[in-house]
Amino acid sequence: MPASTVRPFHRADRDQLTDLVNAHVAAVLPGVSVSVNTVLSQLERQPGEFITDPWVSERVTLVAESRRHVVGAAHLLRYRADDQVGETYRDAGEIDWFVCHPPASFRPDAEQAADQLMAACLAQLARWDVRVRYADGSVPAPAVYGLPRNWPHVRAVYERAGFRHVGDTEVILIARVADLPTPAPGPGTTFERTLGVCGTRFTAYADGLALGFVEVDTSLSRPERHARVTGLADIGNLHIEPAAHGAGLARRLLAEAADWLRLSGVDRLLTYEAAADQAAVDRLCNVGFRELTRTDRRWEHRPG
C-alpha cells in the first residue's frame, strides 16, 4: 500500500476537506452539513469567537493524503504571548480540530495516516515553541465542539499522541419543538419577549418582579455560509430566580419559547448541560429533551 503524505492544505482540497468535516458533523448532529465556504472561512478566522480569535497570531491547516485522496486534516492555532491575551491561552498552541477516516478493512492505512498527521501537528507545535499544547474538535457547525463521544477514532489518535482530557464533560440535548410544552395560562404570571444577550428572551414576571428567563437563538447559521441547518435553534440562557418555583417555571418559559419557535419554522431545539449536573439533565428530559451526545472539553498534551 502506498504511504500517506502530510502537507499544507491547498485550496484544491476544499471539496474533499468539506466532505470529511461533514462526515464528522453527521455523526454528532442529525440533518446538519456545512458549505465549502463555511470551512474555508473558518481557516482564515472565527468570527463567532470574538474573544479568543483576536488573540490568534498564526493558523496552519494540514492534510493527510493517500492515493490523491484527503483522508485526514487538522487546523492549528497559535496564540500570542502578550499580556492582552487571557492567561489560559497566552503563548498556547492548539489543535482546533482534527478529522480523519476511521480504521476499516477497505482502508487499512487509515490509522497510520492519522498518526502521521498527528505527528506533523506536534512538530508544528514544537516549532512554535508554545508554553502549552491544547486540542479540541470545534469544526464550524453548531454543537460540535470539545471531543464528541461519537468520534472514538479521533479520541484514540489524541490519546496515542499523549493528549489527556483535563476539563469538563457536557451533555448535548435535543428536542423536537413539537414535543415541548404548549403555553398554558397561569394566575399572576406574565411573559415578555425582548432581545436578550444570546437571542430572543422570554421573561416571566409576577407582581412586577422577574422570576426567570430563557433565551433562544434562531440564527445558528448565516444562510450564505451553511448548506443545511434549517429549522435548528439553541437555548443560549435559562435562568430561574432561587425564590421562584424552578421546575414549573422552567416548563412554562420553555412553552413560551417553543410557541415562538413554531412561528419561526424551527423544529428542533438544542441545549447543553454539565454532565455533573444530572438533576438539570433530568429536568430537561422531563419536558421533551433527550440526550444527543456527550462531549469532553479541554484536552492537553501530557505525554508519558
Task: Describe the protein in words.
InterPro entries: Acyl_CoA_acyltransferase (IPR016181), Bact_Acetyltransf (IPR050832), GNAT_dom (IPR000182). Keywords: Acyltransferase, Transferase. This is GNAT superfamily N-acetyltransferase. Pfam families: Acetyltransf_1 (PF00583). Residues 152-304 form the N-acetyltransferase domain. Helix 3 (110-128) packs across helix 4. The chain has six helices and 15 strands. The strands form two sheets. It has an eight-stranded mixed β-sheet. The protein has a seven-stranded mixed β-sheet with strand order 1-2-3-4-5-15-7. It has two domains: 5-161, Aminopeptidase (3-Layer(aba) Sandwich); 174-295, 3-Layer(aba) Sandwich (Aminopeptidase), CATH 3.40.630. Helices cover 25% and strands 34% of the residues. Strand 2 and strand 3 (69-79) form a beta hairpin. The protein has helices at 14-26, 36-44, 110-128, 152-161, 246-263, 278-285; strands at residues 5-8, 56-66, 69-79, 92-100, 132-135, 147-148, 163-165, 169-176, 190-196, 199-206, 209-217, 232-240, 268-274, 290-296, 299-301. It is of the alpha+beta class.
Alpha-carbon Rg, integer: 21 Å
- Mind describing the biggest β-sheet? 8 strands, mixed
- Please trace the helix and strand order, writing H or E for each element: EHHEEEHEEHEEEEEEHEHEE
Q: Return the average pLDDT rounded to an integer.
A: 92
> Helix tally?
6
CATH arch. level architecture of the largest domain: 3-Layer(aba) Sandwich
The assigned structural class equals alpha+beta
* Share in β-strands: 25-35%
Stretches where pLDDT falls below 50 for ≥5 residues?
none
CATH topology of the largest domain: Aminopeptidase
Can you tell me the number of structural domains? 2
Please estimate the helix content: 25-40%
Strand order of the largest sheet: 6-14-8-13-12-11-10-9
- Outline type: elongated
Q: Termini distance?
A: 31 Å
CATH classification, class level of the largest domain: Alpha Beta
Total strand segments: 15
The fourth-level CATH homologous superfamily of the largest domain is Gcn5-related N-acetyltransferase (GNAT)
Domain N-acetyltransferase: 152-304
Organism: Streptomyces pseudovenezuelae
InterPro entries: Acyl_CoA_acyltransferase, Bact_Acetyltransf, GNAT_dom
Keywords: Acyltransferase, Transferase
